[in-house]
Structures are given as structure tokens and as C-alpha cells.
Amino acid sequence: MKIVVIGGTGLIGSKLVNKVREQGHEAAAAAPNTGVNTITGEGLAEVLKGASVVVDVSNSPSWDDAAVLKFFETSTRNLLSYEATAGVGHHVALSVVGTDQLSESGYFRAKIAQEKLIKASSIPYTIVRATQFFEFLKGLADISMVGDKVHLPPVLFQPMAADDVATAVGRIAVGPPVDNTVEIGGPEQFRLDELVRRRLAILKDNREVIADPKALYSGAKVSDRTLLPGDNARLGETRFETWLTQSAGTARAA
Ligand SMILES: NC(=O)c1ccc[n+]([C@@H]2O[C@H](COP(=O)([O-])OP(=O)(O)OC[C@H]3O[C@@H](n4cnc5c(N)ncnc54)[C@H](OP(=O)(O)O)[C@@H]3O)[C@@H](O)[C@H]2O)c1
């Protein structure tokens, strides 16, 4: 089976391409630096030739409200249209747990738009909503700055390792489309501010993390359970402490 991974050079995409190949399938890593651009359409028809499944794990280069909305709308429209022409039988897209409750955020309005386009198209699909990646904890601090301090709401979340995300998405990609949304998450719950504080300390990043009940998550108000997956979520195995002992956890840049 040929599987095209859009964003196949990114954090999740590069792991996914390897996992799909290990299972004996053909995987094409599609991204601008492999000659495939979902915004311009460059290389799309060629890479989709003979493909059964497309997995979209791309992300917008800019998270500015207007830019990210334009990215996910344009990219998703183009992909679905080229997939229809190529006869692709399953569109898998990676989204985020709680997306529908986060419409105050420009980034999440873009993910909502992406999900809507997929649901409205004729291509059978599976939307996979994942919780926050351990690899994104420093990024969470970066997008939560008020002055020189990190302000985060002390709400629950259930983050997971990027490797477990790629494993779960890989399994879903080789299975039948469910024409629905499935959730994946990590094995443990934490408070958002606590885990980001721990991560920054490990990275010797001396920014102060403030538990601020009024702070926004990516521009949106969240309640205690907004970021938690539901009871039917498939949970990854990697615990935070285990991830830390692996190379990804100790790398300064992660
Ligand atoms: N961060 C989190 O905690 C989290 C949680 C749940 C879900 N997600 C979702 O996971 C997805 C993937 O995230 P990630 O961190 O793996 O992303 P990433 O590492 O930033 O990778 C993004 C990929 O998209 C590609 N891309 C950018 N513009 C493109 C274009 N015009 N055409 C084709 N490909 C393009 C990039 O290619 P180049 O490298 O060539 O630019 C790269 O391969 C996102 O959709 C995000 O919403 C994230």
C-alpha cells in the first residue's frame, strides 16, 4: 500500500514515514523540501499517483491568526481535490484534543476549518485528535509569555510522546477509514503549569512559570478538563519520566 505523508519531514511526519516503511508499506514524505507544496499544488499530482492513503501531519510555518487559517484552508482544499482526482481512499489528518472548544484561538479556528473541510468532502477519512506532545512543552512556554514570565492556566492535560503519536497514526493509516474522529493521549495527567515548569528546569531555561487561572491556552479560555481526551481515547505507553531518559527528552533544543 502506498501512503503519502504530507508534512513527512516534520516532527511527527518523519517518525511516521519510518514506521509505515517498517510495516512493509511504501511511504512518500511530502513537504516543500521534497518538492511537494500543498499551498501551490507543486508536486501533488505526481506524489499522489498510486496512493491509497494520505496522512496530513503538516503544520503552518506561521501561527499568525490569518496566516494559519489561510494555510489549513488552502492546503486542505487542495489536498482533498487532488486526492479525489487520484482516487485516494482514505484521508487521515492529525488534529488536537479539544479543538472544537478552543475557537477563541486563531490557531484552533484554523484546525476547526481543516476538520470541517475534511468532513464535508467525499473522501473517506479519519481525524485523529492528539493531546499535546512532550516535545511541545517548551513551545507552550514560548506561546504563553506575558512580559518575561510564562503564564499558564493550572488545568489538567494528558500529554504524549511524539513517537507514540506516530505509532497510533500509523496504525490508523493502514486501517479502514472510520469517517469520524478518534482521540489519542498520554498515559498520565498533569497540571499544565507544573509540567512546563519541570521541563524548563530540565532545559536550564530560567523563565518563571506562573500558575494563572485567568491565563489563556493558545489565546483561548480553558476549563479544568478542556484539554483532556475522552474515555474512549487510545493511550500511548511512554510516561514523561521515561521520555526524559530518551534522547529527545534531554536534547536542549526539544
Ligand atoms: N504540537 C502539539 O502538541 C500538537 C498536538 C496535537 C496535534 N498537533 C498537530 O500535529 C501536526 C504536526 O505537527 P508537527 O509538530 O509534527 O509539525 P512540524 O514538525 O512543524 O512539521 C510540519 C511539516 O509540515 C510541512 N509543511 C509546511 N508547509 C507545507 C506545505 N505548504 N506543503 C506541504 N508540507 C508543508 C513541513 O515541511 P518543511 O519542513 O519542508 O517546511 C513539515 O514537514 C499539526 O497539524 C498540529 O496541529 C500538534
Write structural notes for this entry.
With 254 residues, the chain is of the alpha/beta class. The chain has nine helices and twelve strands. The chain has a seven-stranded parallel sheet, with helices on both faces. A three-stranded mixed sheet has the order 6-7-11, covered by helices on one side. β4 (90-96), α4 (106-120) and β5 (125-130) form a beta-alpha-beta unit. The longest helix has 22 residues, at 65-86. It is globular and about 50 Å long. Bound molecules: NADP nicotinamide-adenine-dinucleotide phosphate.
What labels would you give this structure?
seven-stranded parallel beta sheet, three-stranded mixed beta sheet, binds NADP nicotinamide-adenine-dinucleotide phosphate, 9 helices, 12 strands, 254 residues, 37% helix
